[in-house]
């Protein structure tokens, strides 16, 4: 698993989980992964974010997480709602990213 997949999966988990404390833990994990992305943005430069998005969503929707994921009831979008440039930007807003995922999932 790449750090980009960890970042995206943690972001999706934070968006799916309605329990504030658990969502906060996933947001913290997302922040750690995003810091690593910023520190070595060249490591992900050639990656296809939509393919990694698909893997990250599968990971986030794994059976062991389903019981606690009640915030969004519809599936995730097929295409990643972020670009590589956005997720490797030091100014990426994790909380806004979580909301963007929740909104895109809610509206399809």
Describe the 3D structure:
This protein is mainly alpha-helical and 108 residues long. It is 63% helix and 0% strand. The chain has six helices and no strands. It has helices at 3-16, 20-39, 49-60, 63-66, 84-87, 94-107. Helix 1 runs antiparallel to helix 2 and helix 1 (3-16) crosses helix 6. It is globular, with a radius of gyration of 13 Å. The chain starts with a helix and ends with a helix. The relative contact order is 0.22.
Any chance you could write out the topology, listing elements then pairs?
Blueprint lengths: L2 H14 L3 H20 L9 H12 L2 H4 L17 H4 L6 H14 L1
Q: Distance between termini?
A: 26 Å
Shape assignment: globular
Number of helices: 6
Helix content: 55-70%
Structural class: mainly alpha
Total strands: the figure is 0
Strand content: under 5%
State the gist of this model.
This protein has 108 residues and is mainly alpha-helical. It has helices spanning 3-16, 20-39, 49-60, 63-66, 84-87, 94-107. The chain is built from six helices and no strands.
Supply database-style keywords.
mainly alpha
């Amino acid at each position: 698993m790449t750090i980009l997949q960890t970042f995206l999966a943690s972001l999706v988990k934070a968006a799916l989980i309605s329990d504030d404390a658990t969502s906060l833990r996933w947001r913290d994990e997302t922040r750690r992964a995003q810091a690593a992305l910023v520190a070595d943005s060249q490591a992900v430069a050639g990656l296809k974010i939509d393919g990694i998005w698909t893997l990250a969503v599968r990971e986030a929707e794994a059976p062991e997480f389903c019981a606690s994921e009640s915030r969004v009831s519809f599936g995730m979008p097929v295409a990643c709602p972020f670009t590589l440039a956005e997720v490797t930007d030091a100014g990426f807003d994790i909380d806004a990213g979580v909301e963007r995922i929740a909104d895109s999932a809610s509206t399809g």
